[in-house]
Design brief:
By secondary structure, this protein is of the alpha+beta class. 27% of the residues lie in helices and 23% in strands. The strands form 3 sheets. The protein has a 4-stranded mixed beta sheet with strand order 4-5-1-10, covered by helices on one side. A hairpin with a 4-residue loop joins strand 8 and strand 9. It is globular, with a radius of gyration of 19 Å. 38% of the residues are buried.
């Protein structure tokens, strides 16, 4: 007598997927773009920005297809209504197939990220670590964030601190669904803690809510932040590759050789 087939364990409430972006688009990724996306791709005059767009669209489509159990070609990504004005320029959302999943996408030179959540929204931002405009903190940071940045000596430590604040701020606003449409100096991200609960701004459609912000290094050259709902459980982190393997071309949940990567389920 055989017992019932083992059930599939539930997916974590919030996942972060990240992938490496090449210097030029991969033909296999181009084949996954819709006609509208192909038209947008032709507007890029340099291969690196084109690769950021094509690689990220293809990665998002493949990851979501594996999560939803459908072919990648059937996944349609659009935009949700803006929670402030109801215009069609809000955060990204999955139009087809129908699903309650929330998503957020970010990419920069060399790396892209996808946040997936079943629990009330998600926001992600990733940045290449590089020198930043010294005028940014005074125009975009709260007093507590300025104190955090100015306590560090000029140079790489202060530049990293500035980008830490910036990625946290962008991730928070993406989770709310409004992008950079507020006085950024009034958005407090508590950068002194890797993970902290912070207040998010309200919108026309929703009262202010709290968010759980986490910062992490994705390798030595990139800094990322994720905003999710408090109490939504652990954040699991996965590297996506286009190579065959379990799941959507995924490698291990963590890279044991890189101390900057966070063990899956640890945040």
């Amino acid at each position: 007598m055989t017992g019932p087939a083992p059930s599939r364990p539930p997916e974590p409430a919030t996942q972060l997927w990240w992938w490496v972006i090449p210097d030029a688009p991969d033909p296999a990724d181009l084949n996954l773009l819709t006609p509208v996306e192909q038209q947008r791709l032709r507007k890029y005059s340099a291969p690196r920005p084109a690769a950021q767009f094509a690689t990220s669209r293809a990665a998002v489509r493949r990851i979501l297809a594996a999560r939803l159990g459908v072919p990648p070609e059937s996944v349609t990504i659009g935009q949700a209504p803006c929670p402030d004005c109801a215009g069609q320029h809000g955060p990204p959302r999955i139009l087809q197939p129908r699903t309650p999943l929330h998503i957020s996408v970010s990419h920069t030179r060399g790396l892209g990220c996808l946040g997936v959540s079943m629990d009330g929204g998600v926001g992600v931002d990733v940045e290449l670590l590089r020198p930043v405009d010294p005028a940014v903190p005074a125009t975009a940071f709260s007093q507590a964030e300025l104190d955090y940045v100015n306590a560090l000596a000029p140079g790489i430590d202060r530049q990293t601190a500035v980008q830490r604040c910036w990625t946290r701020k962008e991730a928070l606003l993406k989770a709310v669904g409004i992008g950079i449409s507020r006085d950024l100096r009034r958005i407090e991200t508590k950068p002194g803690s890797d993970t902290a609960v912070v207040p998010g701004p309200g919108t026309t459609a929703r009262a202010p809510r709290s968010w759980l912000l986490s910062s992490l290094h994705l390798g030595p050259a990139h800094l990322a932040a994720v905003a999710r709902r408090p109490g939504s459980g652990p954040l699991t982190i996965h590297r996506y590759t286009a190579e065959p393997g379990p799941g959507p071309g995924r490698g291990p949940d963590t890279d044991e050789g890189d101390p900057h990567l966070t063990r899956a389920g640890a945040i």
